[in-house]
Amino acid sequence: MNSVPSSPDPESGPPTRPVTGRQRADAVPPLSIGGLEDVRPGALIVAMPALSDPTFAGTVVYVLDHTDSGTLGVVLGRPSQVEIRDVLPGWCDLAVDPGVFHVGGPCETDTALCLATSPAVIADEDSGLRRVAGDVYLVDLDSDPATLDGQLTGLRVFAGYAGWSPGQLAVEVADGSWAVVPGTPDDVLSRMAGPQLWRSVLGRQRGRLAVLSTASADPSAN
Q1: Quick one: residue 150, left, alpha or beta (phi over 0 = left, psi -120 to 50 = alpha)?
Q2: What is the average per-residue pLDDT within 2-29?
Q3: Mean pLDDT for the chain overall
């Protein structure tokens, strides 16, 4: 990764041929909690034990955009070995530990996408920020990081993203591949690796989802 293009615009919709975790483990009965009406920017799409695709098994996806054009999000909790300072040196001092790119998904992995949190920042064209939900913002990496110094509570850079074409996610949620739950700014900046974050997110839910938090995030182990 020698260079990183500008961040994708969620309003442009998902890639033409999105890659998602459609493959299911037939031995596991469907479990659908949280419907498509709950999918919105700031929500989490959590992989269920029925989802056996290794790209998405045991993952938590933070939703960036959800419209009639499709759905965009980033996988949380997948740090890479690529240091931010080696690719985007101006942004490394604003990033939370570990200061590496996180793998946001299988789509356009040579594209950088940045999320930041702040309780009071004003998002406008000059700030280089666009609100996703609550205190979470998309950051324009072409802007000057110095203008945000002291305004953010944290920042994380992702390589690539996950995308669903129109109607695709609805099918996957309906067949029990994913559960949809509320997200928090802390989820975006969490230092927990994928399996630990998966258990943490499910553990704060109620009923059957909370019970699942004691299972393995790897569906082959259940």
Answers
A1: left
A2: 40
A3: 82
What would the two tokens of residue 60 be? Answer: 């938590």
Do residues 202 and 210 touch, judged by C-beta distance below 8 A? yes
Q: Which residues contact 215 (CB under 8 A, 6 or more apart)?
A: 49, 222
Question: How big is the chain by its Cα radius of gyration, in Å?
Answer: 17
In this structure, what DSSP letter does residue 108 have? Answer: E
Alpha-carbon distance 113 to 18, whole Å? Answer: 17
Distances in whole angstroms, Cα of residue 75 to Cα of each of 91, 113, 208 = 20, 12, 23
With bands split at pLDDT 50, 70 and 90, how would you rate the model's confidence at 29? very low
Nearest to 68, CA basis, from 170, 177, 160: 170
Which tokens in the block code for residue 42? 């700031």
Q: Are 76 and 60 in contact (CB under 8 A)?
A: yes
Residue 21 pLDDT > 60, yes or no? no
